[in-house]
């Protein structure tokens, strides 16, 4: 992999590498990256990997190679203190929109602001990242005054960008990279024009994030932030009169009307199924924004911050119009509603052309890597989605001895997954294995409903002999649950999709992974339905062209939780009988690591009991 990456960096080519668990893929791209001397952006899917690269892997590789490099870790602007908004909040805490900025917290932030060099809010440990006070003292792309800001010289966002532009290696996440690509700058200036290579780790997440990014979205929170900021800035400038206030309130009423109309509907609603009143509310919102713009868009107006609010209102109007008038042949529209508000969205079916255009725009190497990119040995599902169909591809197998270390148990005896008895039957089939492993299991579900049913059923059939603790997702926060699982060493953890990826439990604490069903995305999701329509329109079979490959990649992620080290061992149980009864079952099996396979529960139980007995013996030996 390192040689292939070095080659791609040398020739400024595109490369797609699937590197199995344990290959050391991070070092396999960092070593050639550092040796190349090129300016490189490394983009990750998760914050964890960003931190790991910056604090651990890059310093190690740089020291081992004797190549000091300047590295920057760049985050989205919501992670940096905005000195301008802090000054406003401190001087006028009673203005509209600053209610969240409670006195004590603000004083803590002010004291920290005198000391911080980076302005990264993660440093201010006394105030949690999630505290709403940060909304008042961080900026958004919309409310930032940019070069017109009185604090521009000491601006932390601008300084982080400048530092990144002067660095050899910049670590970002996929959202920030896409913001750069879509020219929706999240800070100041662009990163891509200065880069000679972009390396995307956890690249399997990239196509979905890209589809969101190249779409259009109007969110109620953004609009309400705008009305809040407008009232704030007008009050501050002494320009707020009753009729202008009424115009701002008309925007808020339109948002409230849409919220009420969406209340109680599904989380995502297909555009064609929206009640008429939502579309009427959207038209009202558009008109109310235009009325406010007409009132405030006065060339004689000197207030920079108010002009900024007008620009934001104009942008919302443009986006709303784009959603309302979008072409359904090229994308899909829907409304998303939740506890934190709603959004009206348009997402294009395909983003490959736009990503391709970015790749062609300038000489630059593009390296995509992840542990799960290929279906069987075919990369086209991934490369087609990211516009990299001509890229060189490489599959590097895991160095682990799956034949010996792992066993795949695929019983034929369970009912069809649609059967109401399925979850209970699956738990009954898994229980002897859980007992043989002495707990030490993940039981992963494809839906929250199945998780609660499974957890209820398991607890109802346990006996006093079953001494292993059962941890259920939702009982405590995810990280705390994982910590407990590791500490206990003999627990059973029951969870959904958030435990399928990015979870690394080494050693015997995790010896059995049970997956309830093949992870096909829920068919009632309007985004999925619309995407499938797009495939049909192109004359392709959406099930085989999209749903099966997506489910295979998701299953590979889930199965990948088991063997994380050369000493690990264990059993993967896939209860879904469709592996045997449907033609596509073979594609799933062929895409998994080369584990020994059995349909006999007794063989799987013996595998686990033997290994657990071996552990006990080794422990006794060391104690003696
Ligand atoms: S330039 Fe923008 S982010 Fe920086 S201090 Fe001013 S308003 Fe805040």
Structure in words:
With 624 residues, this protein is an alpha/beta fold. It has 4 domains: 2-69 and 168-214 and 351-396, P-loop containing nucleotide triphosphate hydrolases (Rossmann fold); 77-147, no CATH class; 216-347, de novo design (two linked rop proteins); 402-623, P-loop containing nucleotide triphosphate hydrolases (Rossmann fold). The strands form 3 sheets. The chain has a 7-stranded parallel β-sheet with strand order 3-4-2-5-10-1-11, with helices on both faces. The radius of gyration is 27 Å and the shape is globular. It binds iron/sulfur cluster. Residues 82-85, 139, 144-146, 149, 151-152, 155, 157-158 line the site of iron/sulfur cluster (SF4).
Q: How would a textbook summarize the main sheet?
A: 7 strands, parallel
Please count the helical segments: 24
Instruction: State the end-to-end CA separation.
Output: 44 Å
Which CATH-level-2 architecture of the largest domain? 3-Layer(aba) Sandwich
CATH class of the largest domain: Alpha Beta
Low-confidence sequence ranges: none
**Mean pLDDT across all amino acids:** 90
CATH topology of the largest domain: Rossmann fold
Strand neighbour order, sheet with most strands? 3-4-2-5-10-1-11
Principal-axis shape equals globular
Portion of residues in beta strands equals: 5-15%
């Amino acid at each position: 992999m390192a040689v292939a990456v070095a080659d791609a960096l040398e020739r400024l080519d595109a490369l797609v590498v699937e590197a199995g668990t344990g290959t050391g893929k991070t070092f396999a791209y960092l070593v050639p990256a550092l040796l190349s001397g090129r300016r490189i952006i490394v983009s990750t899917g998760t914050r964890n990997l960003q931190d790991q690269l910056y604090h651990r892997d890059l310093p190690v590789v740089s020291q081992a190679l004797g190549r000091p490099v300047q590295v920057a870790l760049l985050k989205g602007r919501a992670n940096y203190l905005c000195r301008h908004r802090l000054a406003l909040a401190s001087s006028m805490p009673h203005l509209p929109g600053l209610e969240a900025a409670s006195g004590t917290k603000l004083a803590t932030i002010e004291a920290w602001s005198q000391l911080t060099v980076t302005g990264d809010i993660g440093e201010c440990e006394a105030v949690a990242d999630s505290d709403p006070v940060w909304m008042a003292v961080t900026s958004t792309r919309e409310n930032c005054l940019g070069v017109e800001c009185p604090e521009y010289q000491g601006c932390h966002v601008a300084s982080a960008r400048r530092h990144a532009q002067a660095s050899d290696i910049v670590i970002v996440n996929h959202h920030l990279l896409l913001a750069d690509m879509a020219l929706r700058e999240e800070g100041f200036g662009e990163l891509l024009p200065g880069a000679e290579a972009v390396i995307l780790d956890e690249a399997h997440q990239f196509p979905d994030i890209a589809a969101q990014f190249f779409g259009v979205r109007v969110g109620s929170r953004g609009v309400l932030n705008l009305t809040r900021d407008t009232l704030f800035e007008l009050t501050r400038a002494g320009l707020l009169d009753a009729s202008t206030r009424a115009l701002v309130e008309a925007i808020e009423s339109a948002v409230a009307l849409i919220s009420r109309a969406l209340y109680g509907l599904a989380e995502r609603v297909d555009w064609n199924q929206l009640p008429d009143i939502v579309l009427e509310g959207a038209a009202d919102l558009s008109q109310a924004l235009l009325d406010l713009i007409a009132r405030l868009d006065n060339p004689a107006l000197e207030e920079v911050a108010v002009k900024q609010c007008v620009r934001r209102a104009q942008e919302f109007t443009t986006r709303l119009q784009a959603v309302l008038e979008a072409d359904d042949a090229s994308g899909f529209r829907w409304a998303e509603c939740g506890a934190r508000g709603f959004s009206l969205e348009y997402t294009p079916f395909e983003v490959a052309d736009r990503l391709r255009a970015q790749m062609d725009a300038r000489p630059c190497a593009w390296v995509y890597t992840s542990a799960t990119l290929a279906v069987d040995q075919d990369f086209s599902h991934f490369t087609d989605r990211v516009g990299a169909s001509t890229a060189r591809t490489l599959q590097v197998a895991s160095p682990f001895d799956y034949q010996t270390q792992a066993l795949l148990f695929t019983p034929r005896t369970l009912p069809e997954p649609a059967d109401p008895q399925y979850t209970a039957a699956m738990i009954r089939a898994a229980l002897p294995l859980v007992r043989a492993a002495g707990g030490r299991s993940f039981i992963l579900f494809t839906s929250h409903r199945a998780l609660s049913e499974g957890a209820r059923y398991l607890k109802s059939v346990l006996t006093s002999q079953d001494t292993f603790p059962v941890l259920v997702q939702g009982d405590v926060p995810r990280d705390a649950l994982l910590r407990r699982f590791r500490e206990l060493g003999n627990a059973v953890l029951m969870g959904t999709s958030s435990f399928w990826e990015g979870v690394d439990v080494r050693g015997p604490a995790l010896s059995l992974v049970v997956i309830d069903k093949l992870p096909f995305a829920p068919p009632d999701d309007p985004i999925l339905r619309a995407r499938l329509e797009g495939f049909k329109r192109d004359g392709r079979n959406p099930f085989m062209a999209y749903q099966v490959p997506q489910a295979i990649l998701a299953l590979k992620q889930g199965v990948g939780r088991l063997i994380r080290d050369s000493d690990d061992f264990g059993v993967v149980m896939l209860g879904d009988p469709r592996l045997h009864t449907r033609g596509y079952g073979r594609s799933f099996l062929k895409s998994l690591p080369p584990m020994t396979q059995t349909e006999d529960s007794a063989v799987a139980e013996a595998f686990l009991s033997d290994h657990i007995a071996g552990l006990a013996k080794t422990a006794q030996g060391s104690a003696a």
